[in-house]
Hints:
Blueprint: H1 6-20, E1 28-32, H2 34-39, H3 44-59, E2 69-71, E3 78-86, E4 91-99, H4 103-107, E5 112-119, E6 126-131, H5 133-151, E7 158-162, H6 166-174, E8 184-188, H7 192-202, E9 209-212, H8 216-222, E10 225-228, E11 250-253, H9 262-266, E12 270-273, H10 276-284, E13 297-298, H11 299-304, E14 317-320, H12 325-342, E15 346-349
Parallel strand pairs: 1-6, 7-8, 7-10, 8-9, 10-11, 11-14, 12-13, 12-14
Antiparallel strand pairs: 1-15, 2-3, 3-4, 4-5, 5-6
Helix pairs in contact: 3-5, 3-12, 5-6
Amino acid sequence: MLQMTQEWMEQDKALREQYSKNLKIGEEILYLSWQDCQDTGTTVEEIINATEQGMIDYSLKKTEMPAKIGIHPMQDSLMHAMPAYLPDQYACGIKWGSNFPDNRKLFGVTNTNCQIIYNDALTGMPMAIMDATWITELRTPATALVSIKYGGNLDATTWGMIGCGIQGKANVRMIEHMLPKLEKIYIYDVFEQAMDDLIAIDQPQVNAEIVKCSSYEELVKSAEIITSAIPIAHVPNPPVKDEWVSKGQTLVCLDCHTTYEDAVYKRADKYYQDSIEEHALLATYGVYPNGLPTITGETGEAAAGVVPARESKDELVIFNNVGMATEDMMCARIIFDRALEQGLGVKLPMWGSTKGMK
Length: 358
Ligand SMILES: NC(=O)c1ccc[n+]([C@@H]2O[C@H](COP(=O)([O-])OP(=O)(O)OC[C@H]3O[C@@H](n4cnc5c(N)ncnc54)[C@H](O)[C@@H]3O)[C@@H](O)[C@H]2O)c1
């Protein structure tokens, strides 16, 4: 548990006073849609930096963030409750996020959907309810980029993306922020249309040539660094064979152990998780039926320099980042500040006509 110190309280009071000029905290809530989040003009660099700080602060134990709990109404679906408090940042709130892999097919709506309730850390009052699909779309590739920063070769000319949905597209759009020398981006998805859609949307936005692969094997044997984001299977049936993966590669898993055969994780020279506690909880849900490999440390620890990052070009380095609320709240703080300054969103009354109990 992390409690308010005098120093944090002074800092928070000053910020609260500033916010109070534009929002009656305790009487109204700012509602921010996906479009409002986008309209704040928050840049990819800001999201990458905020995400990295969220990962570091978590690993240095400067935050309060319990492992996410969840419910799973449909086959392979998840709904996760993700609270976090980052006292240094006056950021506090909860994300309620879901992934239902059959949504598009069955109901014609997106598979991923998330909201954040963003709170005042001094009173617990909600200050904003904001879309968090926009934040999730960007901060998740940002976790991959932070991983690549510490575990990859930044001169790499080849990178691969397995899974071409929302995450696949966003990862492709953002990759050159960390790997500016890329010449080829290899992609693979079981649905050909998803690859074609990705190319149509993303090719005009990146310099490297996007190459459609005809198999996992082709992609894995072509790319120095690979990011994967396919639906997390509750009974894993990994499509990528151990023999296709080489020493020296960097694998960033945004989908737990869904993509690679278990032997790959077990022979990694370095294996990081974003939150060891989080993955230990996932293990109790049966996500890791073959057990976990030896853990080198947390991704944020590698970023903070308290555990070694990649040490030689021959190492097989793997990151398993399931996503953390500290990253979301860091980004939510930027969005909230900007939206309030710019007058974006809609203010909703908390109490109707009664104003609540005084
Ligand atoms: N780590 C994190 O912080 C984080 C955040 C958001 C999403 N995710 C995870 O990333 C994954 C993808 O999320 P999304 O929002 O892009 O979903 P999405 O539904 O938009 O995309 C998934 C894509 O994977 C493809 N696919 C399905 N099975 C496949 C397979 N076996 N091989 C190759 N491609 C396959 C689908 O055709 C689809 O294009 C999910 O597992 C989600 O839970 C992780």
